[in-house]
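subagent[fold] <- orchestrator: predict structure for attached chain, return tokens only, no commentary.
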Amino acid sequence: MIRRKSLTSTRGDRSEQADEADEFREQLGGTANTAINRTQLSDWRQDCDLPPGGISRYFSAFSIGYTDNRNRGMLDGVSLDQLRIFIAAADEGSFSAASRKLLRAQSVVSETVGNLEAQIGVPLFDRSGRYPKLTPEGVVLLADARGIITAVDLLKARAKGMAAGLEPELSIVVDVFYPIDVITQVAREFRTQYPGVPLRIYVEALGAAIEPVLDGRCSVGIVGSLPAIPDTLTNERLEPIFLLMVAASCHPLAARKGKIPKEELAKHTQIVLTDRSKLSAGRELGVMSPATWRLADLFAKHHFLLNGLGWGGMPLHVVQKDLEERRLAILSIEDVPPGGLPLSMSAVWQTKSPPGPAGRWFIERMKEIPLPAPASKMLKPPPAAKKIRGRA
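subagent[fold] -> orchestrator:
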């Protein structure tokens, strides 16, 4: 109940009357930006015996009716239940069908949608026909409502996962030598298994593949190019990949028969993958020729080899199709096994921060997928061209 107060004169002490007006504001529970309806102001004016225009002296900052703040308050009151019922009504095509789907009374569905329209000030359905039809505004706001509900459901799923120890995000760095087809297959299944966990994947070479794990940017690394794993990391062995020494079919080394001695290799340029990081500084991994071209990208190295610019080692899965179609040839080199050099691969992580359920699942799934192994037909030299006898 608002305590009524009488003002003896509209021409009395300005500060006293202003104080009484401020007191009236406080009684209404508002501030200078609060909306006050006309009935409240009319009652106060009559109680204070003010002339019709005198009220503006005390409430010039007050707006009559709804203000932006009040509209904001009404929009803030929109509930998830209202949005879900709105979506159901739109999807089902009628309020009665929505009520059956939601197991709610039809009157509740109709009333909820009506209240939502009143709150946002926009008609969502045209009710002039037999069945309610979305208005143009309703079509637009339906997409927004779906986005809100999806985001909230994702938030709840993530919170539930975090409470159970699930990572808020899984970040993995993968050695460029590891088959990307395997990573893609695991990532596809990961999206179904852990839909609420964002996945971040980096692809690097040599020491750059382990550096993000060391500095904490990635929780798991799939590495294999370094001869030693730093002591601060824990590693788990994965299936190895095979590194083949290859050259373009038109390269002079591809025409050599039998084992190629290292003295002969030294006469030709070797294409070498270089390290962007400093972790392998001073180490030469698989370098057999004093003449080298160094590239920091495996894709570029692949193209250089295809174009006969040198010879070098490549992962089997990268050049398998080129070998089958005779664009590249396997070089038979001293001290290199016929099936290529097996390169050990490992999953690594900081010992103090082991992978959570999502990271553990990712590693285990990778171990279940077999990696390509060199087929015997790839190891055979290309067939010699048949001589065609012609007439003299």
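orchestrator: received. Logging for downstream: The two ends are 125 Å apart (CA to CA). The first strand starts at residue 125 and ends at 126.
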